[in-house]
Amino acid sequence: MIPGDTSPSPGTKEVLFFERQTYLQNPFCIWPLVGLAGLGIILGGLFLLLGNGSNLGTMVFFTLSGAALLALAILLMICLETRIQRDGVYYRLFPLNLIGKKKSWEEIENAYTCQYRPLIDFGGWGIRVNFFGKGWAWNVSGNKGLQLILTNGKRILIGTQKPEEIDRVLRQLEKLPPPENLQLNPEP
Known about the structure:
With about 190 residues, the chain is an alpha+beta fold. It has helices at about 25-50, 55-75, 120, 165-170; strands at about 15-20, 80-85, 90-95, 100-105, 110-115, 125-130, 135-140, 145-150, 155-160.
């Protein structure tokens, strides 16, 4: 569960939706990094061979190999957790965001699922911002998300692989706008 839950009453802690996504689901992110890790090991090995066993060759090998494997391990640890409860929407990108964020239903003017273009709309995956009115995106893979439009006008898009489940929960909470008001990839 996401730490930092400040729900006042026990009835609001019921988890209606939970999803955990990782970068393993996104080949655009994982395979380039695996390639980079392999390249780091190969280049480090070349320095080791060409350095005739010198300390510099050994140091470069372990530095490049270690850095590449560490970057890969960190990327494999990152996961986006989304939770919907009766009192609001919770989300975090662990381990980058340890405590997590919460938007209460009082702060949310509108909530709906939509399809978006991660590369075009936000420049990729992760915690991203679009300065042209689309707000923040929290995503690790895919092109579907939960769009939150806040009462202060700000927008937050949380990536999901389960838009139908989110729609079901939003209907259950009576938070989903009527179908004629929904737009695919809405403009600000």
